[in-house]
Amino acid sequence: MTSTVRMTEMNVSEAGVTALVTEMVSAAVVVCLYDASSKIGALVHPLLPRFPEGTGDEGVGRFVDSAVSRAVERMVAAGAEATRIAAGLSGAADVFSFADDCTQYSIGGQNAETAREVLEELRIPVQAEDLGGHLPRTVTLQIDTGALIAQIPGKDPKEVAVLRGGSGVRKV
Hints:
The chain has about 170 residues and is α+β, with helices and mostly antiparallel strands. The protein has helices at about 65-80, 105-120, and strands spanning about 1-5, 10, 20-25, 30-35, 40-45, 85-90, 125-130, 135-140, 145-150, 160.
């Protein structure tokens, strides 16, 4: 069974879930988290970089920093080992600008940078990135294999990486 994750949501795989998928990812950054030993994965689809201080617990999934931290907590509660979790990033497209080097200034670029910072703080290695461009994409995390797959409309799906744990960043 495939579980769909909507914008501003996060989902941790449960028994019977074979894939986590989110569609039409543009400026948002999708963070896929995976523990290969327990085969527990999470997919996070936040919209904005940082959770505003003093706003309570509502809207945690809207922000990269709070959504990623909460997803890791939920994975550990489900049986994942924090030291075995690896991450892959996708999205952060700049769908409204067509300059070649605008990602670092766009909301997508800010989301991606925040995701990298939070993952570094949590000591979770980013093993793959499929970021930027000008087109939205569908992102899938296959729970049985850890494969991170991105598909731009009208193009064939692309396996970005297989998340396995360990360290290092491989940009695709």
